[in-house]
Amino acid sequence: MADPVLQLEDLSVRFQLKRGQLTAVDGVTFTVHRSETFGLVGESGSGKTVTARSVMRLIPMPPGEIVRGRILFEGHNILQHSDQEMRELRGKHIAMVFQEPMSALNPVFTVGHQIADALRTNLGMRKKEAKERVLELMQLVGIPSPASRYNNYVHEFSGGMRQRVMLAMALSCNPTFLIADEPTTALDVTIQATILELIRSMIERLNMSLIFITHNLGVVAHTCDTIGVMYASHLVELASKDELFANPLHPYTVGLLNSIPRLDTQTKYLTPITGSVCNMLAPPQGCKFHPRCAHAMDICTQEVPRLREVAPGHFVACHLHT
Amino acid sequence: MRDAFLEVQHLTKHFPLNDDLLSHLTGKTRMLKAVDDISFFIQPGETLGLVGESGCGKSTTARLITRLIEPSSGTIWLKGEDLLALPSSRMLEMRKTIQLVFQDPYSSLNPRKTVMQILSRPLEVHHLAHGWAAKRRQVLHLLRLVGMGVEHADRYPHEFSGGQRQRLAIARALAVNPQLIIGDEPVSALDVSIQAQILNLFRELQDELNLTYLFIAHDLSVIRHISDRVAVMYVGKIVEMGTVKEIFAHPQHPYTRALLAAVPEADPRKPPPRLTLQGEVATPVNPPPGCRLYGRCPLATEVCGQVSPPLSDRGSGHFVACHNM
User: Fold this and answer.
1) ipTM computed for the complex
2) CB distance B280–A160 less than 8 Å?
3) Can you list the domains of chain B with their CATH numbers?
4) Closest by Cβ to B274, choosing from A161, A188, A193
5) How far apart are CA A251 and CA A261, in angstroms?
6) Average pLDDT by stretches of 10, chain B with 325 residues
7) How far is Cα B188 from Cα B318, in angstroms, rounded to an integer?
8) Are B268 and A193 in contact (CB < 8 Å)?
9) What pTM did the predictor assign?
10) Helices vs. strands in chain B: H and E counts, helices first
11) Do A245 and B161 touch (CB under 8 A)?
């Protein structure tokens, strides 16, 4: 494996809310290597987005607080960076693509202007130089006739094209690391296919590393080398894509895979995971999955299982696998 | 096909976009053809899956069948009766037969009403239960029917998770003992593990209450799971229709094939998703004559740009609207 680029060590993020204290990310540890695509999968509220935003230091503080852990980017703990150093890092080294391009882009500036802004601010380009580069970028992400689209506003673009604009903006300052937070969730399946293809080819061409956040197991199966599964603030399983799908170990991962209706077979009933996600303001003791787990034992109600390597490169946090 | 439970013939809904005098005089009205001459039927006890991408007219179809909006033309036969010709007095009666379940249970339930109030409202409107005790009994029965504890009756929607809210929305639809349930993306807003629970609930209820479903979804694997027959829509038209087995094993229409090839399956050994069509989805505003897929289709010939292909029977109930099949 190539050298590590991003290392999260025991990251814990907490929010002080009016209704109480919410631990959104609890002891998450993983490493992303150079040119690796890392998929972070989980359902709503599992902590995927908070994890990603911590890496960008985009957690509003307060109410948020990083209570424990380190985030090492190319060896430096970015949690100790000054705001100035973070501005250097964002865009130029780590860039992010968001789920809703409509709310991430500014409706009152033209698309070209917004991408150029990133170049002028981050790289100090002049207006003309920036425009040339923007046209190149728009071409690169497959926006047809960039010259005429440069002066369009966001509402004049379709959902798929908006996501291409987001990607052009993210790639504008040649980052080495991309974080994509549910970039295709709001898109139709045919548009999703083209955006996934685009992200894959960009990553390969520009030799970037990627964290891809999604709730869709089908998407990670075709986009990522390594997959981390999150449930209720914990990373519960981590393995290579092939290993995870062939040999899922955590009962939650198994449950998720069984819940998905399949295209190749038809069964009368699906096998869902029973119950629903715990209340994160008052989570259960021990393993957070135990109230929904068919294999729960006494120890599961008392002790939080630690993430352990049970086979080479296959980590799982479950008392069944120790 | 008068024995079909629901039969829709040449159903059309056009929305005028600039409906002013000047545009009429100059002949420059722009029409959004949301649903454009579609025909299909649903047999009693059957599930028809309606699948397509955003803006293809799925939800408009649901609203037309429930007469939440009136069609521009076409007919809807429900149990042999012309639904559109019914006087409003009979329509209330008919509304008991068809019920809708919406996509987003966060906006379809009134946050100021308790579960008891939400579920007893249809009973009041249709005079199905008189007096508090009778309504209470009925509401508790509905809660049990959708797999929820009776202790929830006096709670408010915000106290429930997304999956539970969708159960409540289904319970409300069931309150009037309907025969046809139209689900308009009823599982799209739910997490995978909860989605499976709700899909199972739909199945159980169908068996128990002998329901007929029109199930609208954009997720092909959900459609594959729940449907007996499937209709694929693209920009206001049904392009292919057939049994679930036929559609998924032998898709004929280039759009159906493209849709299937674009689905990322949760199995890394399967081929990666890809798009086999060019360009972007056509607009339903003043669409050109001819096939709606013209310009994107790899099989297109000259005739495709001029004549809209009719949905024709290719044997064993498999209908395809394509000139080149």
Assistant:
1) 0.86
2) yes
3) 6-97+178-320 (3.40.50.300)
4) A193
5) 18
6) 84 88 77 93 96 92 94 94 89 91 91 96 93 95 93 93 93 96 93 92 95 95 95 96 95 95 91 86 86 92 93 92 90
7) 27
8) no
9) 0.90
10) 10, 12
11) no
